[in-house]
Known about the structure:
By secondary structure, the protein is mainly α. It contains 16 helices and two strands. Strands 1-2 form a two-stranded antiparallel sheet.
Amino acid sequence: MTLIWGTNYAIVKHAFRFIDPQAFNAVRMIIASVVFLGVMIAIRRLPPVRRGEGSLASIFYTPSPITGRDWVALAALGMVGQCLYQYTFAAGLDQTSVANAALITAAAPVLIGLASGASGEGRIGAAHWLGASLSLAGIYIVVGPGLSVGGTTLRGDLTMFAAVCCWALYTLGSRRLMARHSPVAVTGLSMAVGTALYVPGVLRHLRRVEWSAVDGMTWLTVVYSALFSLCVAYTIWYAAVREIGSARTSVYSNLVPLVAMATAVVVLDEPLGVRKVAGAAAVLIGVALTRVKTLTPNPEV
Length: 301
């Protein structure tokens, strides 16, 4: 997941040079929704013996019916975690630097951890907080000296922070649904709802694009980002949320900026330097600390 999302920064940022960001997002969301719904339909048509058993099979299929309450929750997730998140993420990334976006995105584990404790998901131990703080400090070491929080990037910074808030709500809001349904079902249905809301809202962006002039590499980028960043990585994320909890899963998002940094070194020949190595080490140690002592179960839940 971190490899996919980390490399996706450079891929998406490059594509924005040739296509409107919101139009790019709309097309990849449509592709991802079609793929998710197609997989769900195909899995349901398989005979039970072909679906398999165990936790791996439950990632793709669960027999529980979708109730009216579930649909309300899916609609809310689609609005916040797909429509609003995707819009603010694309707008924020377009208006600010990758360094700013990476640092702001690193706030997600802190927000999710606070909300998890407040919602009663679990009592967050000292090791978890230490690990999250160390990871956040490590990302600041990597991108902090080049951070610009004002001027022309301020709007992008604030928009990216709004995206992080939407992602935190989306991650936490999935917990009840994930207890009864598969990650593919929850992600796919919320993605379809979010796409249905998103596309009408960005029609003016879609109309501005001269689609006949979009080259093959840009189309390949759109398809790659849809299949891997949305379909594969989202499924991994929610499978992890179900197995190890939202607070612990969210800490791994701190590895995403490091993958983006490594990609820039290899692809763009950017210098590594001692500062970046030190920051990467702090992030990795922080993630390791969250694995040593995870959330303490709340006996009242």
